Amino acid sequence: MPSDPTKPLLRLNPENSRPRPIGIPRYVPPPDAFSQDRQRRAIGPKFDRLRRVLERANPLEMRADATALAPERLLVFEVRGTVSDFANAIQRVPGLELVDEEELIAEEGDKDPVAYLLMPDLEALRQLESLWSRWLRGALILGETPWRNVFQLLRDLRPWGPQDRVQPLDAAELATEIEGEPDDYLLRLEIELIYRASADKGAIAEDEVRRFVARCDGRMVSRARIDDIAYHAVLADLPVWAVRQIVERGIEGLAGLEPVMHIRPQSVATGIELADPEDFAIAAGQSAALGRPILALLDGVPVAAHPVLANHIDLDDPFALEPDALVANRVHGTAMASLIVHGDRNRSEAPLPRRIHVVPVMGNGDRFPPDRLVVDIIYLALQRMREGDAPTAPDVLIINLSLGNWRRPFHGQLSAWARLLDRLSYHFGCLFLVSAGNNDTPFAVPTFATGAQLEAADPRERSAAMISALGALVGERRLFAPAETVNGVTVGACNEDAILPAARVGAGLHVDPFPDLRIANPSSNLGPGFASSVKPDILMPGSREHVHVVRTHDHVDVRPSRPSRVAGLKVAAPPAAGDENRLGYTSGTSAATALAARTCHRIHDSLEAVYGDQFTGLSHHQRAVLLKALLIHPAHWHEDSASVLRSVLGPADGRQHVRQKDNIRRFLGYGWVDPDDAVACAEDRATFWATGMLASNQITTLNVPVPQCMSGQARLHSLSATVAWFTPVSPGRKRYRTCRLKIIEPLGLGDLAVASHGNQPDTNQTNRGTVFTRSWRGDQAPVIGPGLSIPIHIQRDPDQGGVIDERIPFGVAVTIDMPGLVGLYDEVRLRLRPAVRASTEGA
Fold first, then answer.
1. What is the pTM of this model?
2. 582, containing H or E segment
C-alpha cells in the first residue's frame, strides 16, 4: 500500500541494559608462502637500509608526536595475497601495530597490496632484525612462531618514500597535464604535509617546502592547517621540469622532501549537464512565511532570484564568488537548490516549508576557486554556519554536498575532504549527504557486435550484458572524494524519474540499458567504501539514464546519454536571452543527492508536525543520526535487480554468497529508497523510531509491539531494523573509526515466522560503517499472542584504538509490515502510550 501522510512514524523509548559478550572473529588462513631462500635474497638486504633511515631520525622526537603517525617511522610492507591476510598474521604478534589495521582490506584483484607498520624507535627495528635472523635459522622460540607467517608473506620491505608520496593515479594525471608544455610552464599542485601537533614544528616543515618551491622558481598560492583532522597542506605552482621529477618520483625532487606526505593535482569539481530548456508559466499566489533553515546547500552560485527559488534561499557568500559568476553559468547551484526545494518538478510536489541556507563553494563555470584548497573552503563554511558569536545558520543539521573531486577516485586511502566531513559530523551533529560521482566515459559491451543488436536484444539479455560490461570496470568507477566519508550518507543514482513511458518514444537511437530493473545508472560510481563498508549507502532517482553507441568494431562501445526531456529530472535553469522563467533537465548522482537531502528535510518536517517539542527538543546530534537511520531504513534490493546481478557477476557457487553480496552491494548499496516510505507509514506497515545515547560496551533495548492481526496470516511479512550513529574519528591513528554499534539477532523471530534473507548485505559488510541494518522475512503464518513484543537490542561494542569517554548518540528505525493487511498500523499505534496525534501534513 502507498504511504499515507496521516499515518506518521511511531516513537519508541529505548531501555538500557547490561552488555553482552562479544564474539571472536574467525581465523582466515594465509595464502601460499614465499620460500625462505627467496626471502633471504630479496628482503635481507633491506634491513641495513632501514637501520640507516631510523638512525637519522630522533626517536625521542618521534615518540613525542602523539597526534599523528610520522611517516619516517613507518615501514612499508608490500605483501603477497591480500592485505587482510597479512593483517591476520600481524594481529597475532604482540606489540606490533599496523596503521588502520581494521581498514586493511584490499580490493579483490589488487596487484600491489601495501600495509604500513609502525616502528616506534630504533630498538624496535633491532628486535625485528633479530626475529628475522632467527626465522632464517629456523630458531624461533615459543611465542615467536606467528612471525613465520609475517615473513613468509613479504614481497618487499622498505621505508616510506617518494613512491608513497605520489600515488600512481596522481602521477599519471600530472604526466598528462604537463605533456607538450614548456619547462617553465607553471602547474598548480596540492601538497599535503606530514602533520605535526606542534604548530612551531609544522611551520618549520612548511618553510622547508616554501624554500624548495622558491628554488624551483615556483610560487606559493595558499595554505591551510586544520588541527581537527590532522591536516596541513599548501597550494603551490611548480614549473613543468619540477613536476616531471614528481612524476618520476625521484629523490631529488619534491617527492623526496621529508616533510611531504602526498602530492596531487589540484582538485577539480564534478559537474552536471542541463538539457532541453523550456519556458514555464509563473503560478499566481502569495508565498507563506518560511521558517529558518535546517538544511544547507554547499554548491555553485545559484540564480537566487529565479522565480521558483526567490524567497526560498538564504544566500551567504563568504568567499565572494557571486560577483564573478556569470548568471548564465550558474547551472549546478540553481539545479540543486531547485531539487531540494521543489523536488523533480515533473512530480508537482509541495515546496519545503523552510528556506534553505546556500553557501557557494564553486565560482564561475561551477569550478572550485583556483586559489584555495577545497578542504579549507568547506571547513571555513561550516565554522561560519555553526560557530562563533553570530553563526549564520545555527539550526542547520542537514548539509547537501552534491560535489566531488573527480581527480580523487577512492582507492582505499581516505581523502582529507572525507576526514573533514567525518570530523564535522561528530563535532557539530550534522548529516552530510554526498554524491557518489558520475563516470560518463565510453565502455565496451562485448556481447553485441552492432547497435542494432543492442537495441533489439531481449531486455533481460541486454541488462545482463550491461552489468557484465560494468562489472569488468569496477576498478575504474570508484567513488569520488569525499564520497568515502564514514559518517556521511553517500548517494548513488537510481534509474528512476517521473517521466511517463509514452513520452520516452522520443529517445530515438538511445537505448534503455535496464528496462525492467531498478538499479544504479551506468554512469553512477560504484562502491565499496572505506574499510570495505557499504557504499553508496542508498540509491535515489537520478533519471532513467539511456546509453548510445559511440563506436562499433568487433563489439559496440557505448556512453551514458545526456539528460533530456525523455530521461531526466526537471529543475530550474539559468536565464538565457533575457528569459528568466526557464526550466531544464538534469540527471546523475548530484541530483539524486539533492533528492535525498529533500527527503531528510521532509522526515524532519513530519516528525516536527507530529511530535512537536518532543522531537525538536532533541539535540542536533540525536536528530541528525535519527534522520540518517530513517533515510537509509527503507532501502532495499529490488528482487529482480539483485537476481540478475547475482547471476551475472557471480560467483556461481552458491556457497560463496558473501562474495555474491559484495558484487551486488557495489551497484546497489543498501538499496533503492522510496522517499514517501521514509516519511510516513501505511495501513499495512508501521515504522517506529527511537533515539538515545550509549556508553561503551552498553546495550539498549527497544520493545517493538507486534500486531495480533498478523497471527495466522500465511502471507509475506517482514521485520527490519536500522541503527545509525556518528563515530568519533582518529586521523593518523591505528584505528580511524573508533566507535561501532550493531543490532543483536532478536529473540522471538520464530513466533513471527521470519528469518534473515539473502537480498541484503552480509552482516560483516554492514558492520563496517556507521549504519547497521538487518531485515527478516517469511511467508508462513506467525503465531502471535496478545501483547507480544519483539525486543530489538542495540549494542555498542568496546571502543577501538582507545576508550571514548563520551556517550554516543544513535538513531533507530524499526518496521513491521504485512502487505495487504489493513489495520496493522492502527493496532500497534493504539498499543503505544501516549498516542501520537495524527497529521495530514506529515508528507
1. 0.90
2. strand 582-586
